Amino acid sequence: MRLSVMDVGSNTVRLVVADAKGGVPLPVHTAKWRLRLSEQVDPGGPLPEEAVERLVGAVAEASRTAAKWGAGPPQAFATAVVRNASNRSEVLREVRSRTGVGLYTLSGELEAELTFLGARRWMGWRSGPLALLDIGGGSLEVAFGRGRLPDFVASLPLGAGRLTHEFFESGDQPTPELVRALRRRVRHQLRDVAARIRWEGPHTAVGTSRTFQQLGRLCGAPPGRHGPFTERRLHRADLREAIVRLAALPATQRSLLPGISAPRANQSLAGALVGHTALKLTGIKTVTLCPWAIREGVLLRRIEDGASWWAEIGRLSEETALQEPVTLRIAAAGS
Predict the structure, then answer these.
(1) Is 130:123 a contact under the CB 8 Å cutoff?
(2) What single string gives the DSSP state of each residue in 80-136?
């Protein structure tokens, strides 16, 4: 059985085509389309018409790519940037009517659950009680569990893109006052969740996001060309030093540092501050960087629970959309 999953995130649309052999999704093709949606919408505001056009084009191309590789219609989901848009319902209807792809939004808690499943399967049972941190563009997902699925999940509005927009929008070298203000925000919103993680006492902690991967490379983790089975770790002490390096530069120059890509340079400092503050509050000194995350979690649930599971996700997404006002209009570009 060949499956495909499409992830509409804050910065990119990503497609994974995989063969389901022995209950494991084995990738045969991956592709991405860079849209940088988070830069075109205020948190909670409408997605502009130009951004919707680009999204429709990317979804259509990803769907054609999946078909070309012999997969059925992709299991397509959108994370915080679309989920929190005030015109979410219209965006989802536009995508479906013009591409035939049912694009669904997942709650932050379900994102955390699926990401945990992917990480648990990659890390194995030897990892024991497992804590998960995932820094997205719009939200931070936290989970803890001892089994296949987590016992505790939380989704907080602490995404690297969201906080960059609020605190570091100019792209200039940030002032110490702004850095401290962002840290205070993270500490305040993460306090109770971090207390739960400390109380649970995880044996292993993982970071699963692209943000963590780039920060790990900045702090000396092996590059991606060494393959997914190379162990990569990120130490809290090293991340603290990395914050000093990132804060000393304007956003345009951070991509000169190892591991920091130009598209993510602007939000790298906010991501590092969220990551370090989360590790400090939870008492975690080191995270293992895990290559499996939410896309693999979706594929695993589809393999293990069948098509009915994804159909239920679609039903819940559509029910949530129906609860919203239908008078919202897609915002004009630049409005």
Answers:
(1) yes
(2) HHHHT-TTHHHHHHHHHHHH---EEE--HHHHHHHHHHHHHHHH-GGG-SEEEEEE-
pLDDT at position 321: 64
* pTM of the shown model: 0.92
Instruction: For 273-293, write each residue's pLDDT tens digit.
Output: 999 999 999 999 999 999 999
Spatial distance between the Cα atoms of 98 and 303, rounded to a whole number of angstroms: 28
Handedness of CA 30, 31, 36, 42 (dihedral sign): negative
Single-letter residue type at 284: I
User: Which uninterrupted H or E stretch holds 207?
Assistant: strand 204-207
What is the DSSP pairing of strand 103-105 with strand 75-78?
Answer: parallel
What letter does residue 251 receive in the DSSP assignment? Answer: G
CA atoms of 292 and 27, how far apart (whole Å): 11
Q: Which two tokens stand for residue 259?
A: 């591991």
Radius of gyration of the chain (CA): 19
pLDDT band for 171, please (50, 70, 90 cuts): confident
CA atoms within 13 A on the CB side of 172: 5
Region label for 222, one of left (φ > 0), alpha (ψ between -120 and 50) or beta (otherwise)? beta
* CB neighbour list of residue 130: distance below 8 Å, 6 or more residues apart: 116, 119, 120, 123, 144, 145, 146, 202, 203, 204, 205, 206
Q: Are strands 233-235 and 204-207 parallel, antiparallel or unpaired?
A: unpaired
Q: What are 187's two structure tokens?
A: 């500490």
> Residue 317: pLDDT band by 50, 70, 90 thresholds?
confident
Look up residue 170 and give its two tokens: 């100019």
Report residue 136 as tokens.
């997205």
Residue linked to tokens 């090293």: 238
Half-sphere exposure of 328 (CA within 13 A, CB side): 22
Sheet holding 130-135, edge to edge: 152-156, 140-145, 130-135, 204-207, 286-289, 233-235
